[in-house]
C-alpha cells in the first residue's frame, strides 16, 4: 500500500502554562497540536492521533455540495484511474438507504447516499472510487477490485462501512431500572 496522497505536516507545540488541555488547528498545509510540556512521548503520540481524527471529522461534517462532490470525483479519477472514469453527474440522494452509492454507466451518473455525509473523507472517497470504477468495469469481478487496489484506504473504508451496518443492526439499549434512593426504606414483608 502507498502512503496517503496528501499528508500534512504535524507540528507539536509544548507549553509549560498548559496543564491539562490539548488542542489542534490547521495552519496552511500544517496541523498544529498544542500539548502540556510535561506530557510523555507516548501520550503525545496518542493525543496527536486523537486530535488529527477530530479535525478530520470536523472537516468532513462540512457537507460537500453536488458541485464539490463532482470536483472530488474528477480529482479521484485523475489520481487513481488516469482520468479514464468520467462521470457526467455526481450527486447526493436521499432515497438510498440500503446502498452507499450507485452508478448508471450508460448515463455516466453516480449517486451517493446522504448517509455518507459526516463520515470520514477516506470513506466518502472510497465510495466515490467504487462507483467511478463501475464506469470502467461493470460488476464486481477481479478487474474491478484490481482498480480499487490503487486506493490505499480501501480495506479501512470497507471496514468502517461494515461497522456502521453492524451497529445499525444492534438492538437499541434498554434503560436500566431506576435505583431506589438510599433515603427511602425498602419495603418489608411482615
From TrEMBL:
Keyword Hydrolase in record: yes
GO molecular function terms listed in the Swiss-Prot or TrEMBL record: hydrolase activity
Coiled-coil zones: none
Keywords per UniProt: Hydrolase
Database matches in InterPro entries: UTP_pyrophosphatase-like, YgjP-like_metallopeptidase
Organism encoding this protein: Streptomyces cirratus
Domain (YgjP-like metallopeptidase) ranges: 65-161
Membrane-spanning ranges: none
Protein name: Metal-dependent hydrolase
Amino acid at each position: 500500500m502507498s502512503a496517503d496522497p496528501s499528508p500534512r505536516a504535524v507540528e507539536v507545540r509544548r507549553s509549560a502554562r498548559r496543564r491539562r488541555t490539548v488542542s489542534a488547528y490547521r495552519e496552511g498545509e500544517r496541523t498544529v497540536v498544542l500539548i502540556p510540556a510535561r506530557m510523555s512521548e507516548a501520550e503525545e503520540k496518542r493525543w496527536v492521533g486523537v486530535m488529527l481524527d477530530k479535525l478530520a471529522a470536523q472537516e468532513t461534517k462540512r457537507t460537500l455540495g453536488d458541485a464539490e462532490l463532482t470536483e472530488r470525483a474528477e480529482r479521484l479519477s485523475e489520481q487513481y484511474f488516469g482520468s479514464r472514469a468520467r462521470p457526467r453527474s455526481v450527486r447526493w440522494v436521499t432515497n438510498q438507504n440500503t446502498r452507499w452509492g450507485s452508478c448508471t454507466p450508460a448515463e455516466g451518473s453516480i449517486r451517493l447516499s446522504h448517509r455518507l455525509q459526516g463520515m470520514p473523507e477516506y470513506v466518502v472517497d472510497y465510495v466515490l472510487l467504487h462507483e467511478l470504477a463501475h464506469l470502467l468495469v461493470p460488476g464486481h469481478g477481479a478487474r474491478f477490485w484490481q482498480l480499487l487496489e490503487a486506493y490505499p484506504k480501501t480495506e479501512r473504508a470497507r471496514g468502517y462501512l461494515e461497522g456502521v451496518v453492524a451497529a445499525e443492526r444492534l438492538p437499541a439499549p434498554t434503560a436500566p431500572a431506576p435505583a431506589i434512593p438510599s433515603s427511602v426504606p425498602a419495603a418489608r414483608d411482615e
